[in-house]
Every structure is written in structure tokens, then in C-alpha cells.
Amino acid sequence: MLAASGWAEELKPEPYSPELVKKAEAGDANAQLRLGHLYVDGEGVAKDEKEAVKWYTKSAEQGNEGAQAALGWCYYNGEVVPQDYKEAVKWHKKSAEQGVSAAQWALGDYYAKGQGVSQDYKEAVRWYTKSANQDDPRGQWKLGDCYYYGQGVPQDYKEAVKWYRKSETRQSQYKLGQCYEHGNGVTKDEKEAVKWYTKAAEQNYEDAKKALENLKAK
Q: Nearest CA to 32 among 66, 80, 83?
């Protein structure tokens, strides 16, 4: 659940202890967030995602941006609480507005897919850009896709290539392979296409594996 959020806790990790629980119960938002993490991971305490949601909620309601992001993912995934995209949007937006890059690209996704909000590619681009400008690899990949497909912005392969290069995710590596294979935004170069497809394929990206097979079959 948390692994998908893409944001890192900046506080020094604090192990589970009666002192941590006391801090959380006394209203310390950071302690509440940490306690939520520990219940999710089962570190020093039995794994209990319902208890994690309880502490994330307490922390998020106090304005903790990390807890807001985590709670957003809880509602998005719907594994512990009922799946509720509107509630996910609510919490991710609060976190995104405080500058959490993973919440920003998540908000971009909601607008791109029309989950919990009306579909709005321009708004998606706005949030992807905020995330990308913080060097978030997923935000950069998503922004690259917007330029590649002309969603929310004029189609611009060169701009797409720029963001794919910055991203370095396997999805972006695959897209770079496509750009080189078809000459989109770069000079057509099958060797470069193979290079980028291979990078993505080595990370078990199935589309890249198929693309490599197709190139070899030519």
C-alpha cells in the first residue's frame, strides 16, 4: 500500500515503543504517521492495516502531508477501507498542495482517468508538471506521455523525449525505444531503440520484450 506512494518519510525512523504510542495518543502528528507506517509494515508490532488507517487519519486531519498521501492511497487501493476515488482525491489534493510530488502525480492520474473528478487533461498536465519539476520519475514519465500523445498539451515528441530521459523509469525507457524506432522527436535509430527496449525489458517490462522480439524479426 505504501510502496506505491513513492514518497519517503523524512523523519528519522523511530521504532515501535510505548513512548511512540504515547506521543501519538497525545496528538503528535509525526508520531501518528510513524505509527501508521509500523502497522502497515508489521515492524515491532503485529501488522494491522486497519490500525494504520486509524493513525494516518488522525495525522492527516492535523494537516500532515505524508499522512494525507498515505491515506489517499488507502482509499485509492480499497484494500482496508472501501475504495473511494473521491476520498482519495480529497487527501491526495491536500498533500499535493503541500508539495508532495507523489501526491501531485497521483492527482494528475485522477484527472487524466476521470477517477473521482471530471476528466481534465489540462489539469492532469498541471499536476504532472509540478511533480516532474521536483524530479519525481513517475511525474516525468506521465508528463512525457502527455506530450507524446498530445493530451492536455500540443503533441510534441521532442518535449516527450526530454521528460522520458529525465524519468529513467522502465516505462519511459520503453517509450524512448519507441521514439528511436519510429523517429519521433529523435533521429530514427534502431540500435538506440534496441538499447532502450533492452533496459526496460531487463526490468521485466513485457511491452519492451515484445518490441525487442518484433525488431529482431524484421
A: 66
CA-nearest of 72, 76, 66 to 99 is: 66
Low-confidence ranges of the chain (pLDDT < 70): 1-12
Domain count, the chain: 1
C-alpha of 157 from chain center: 23
Single-letter code of the amino acid located at 75: Y
Phi-psi map region of 99: left, alpha, beta (phi>0 left; psi -120 to 50 alpha): left
Is the residue at 53 inside a domain? yes
| pLDDT value of position 1 | 41
C-alpha cell at 154: 500540443
pTM: 0.89
Here the CATH number for the domain that contains residue 16 is: 1.25.40.10
Q: Is residue 177 part of a domain?
A: no
CA atoms within 13 A on the CB side of 39: 19
Cα distances (Å, whole numbers) of residue 156 to 50, 59, 119, 181: 45, 41, 21, 17
User: How confident is the model at residue 135, as a pLDDT?
Assistant: 97
How do the residues of the chain divide into helix, strand and coil, expressed in percent and rounded to 5? 70, 0, 30
Q: Would you say residue 87 lies in a domain?
A: yes
Task: Assess if residue 183 is contained within a domain.
Answer: no
How far, CA to CA in Å, does 9 sit from each of 36, 37, 51?
12, 9, 19
Amino acid at 20: L
Range of the domain at 89: 1-98
pLDDT of residue 7: 38
Q: Are 104 and 139 in contact (CB under 8 A)?
A: yes
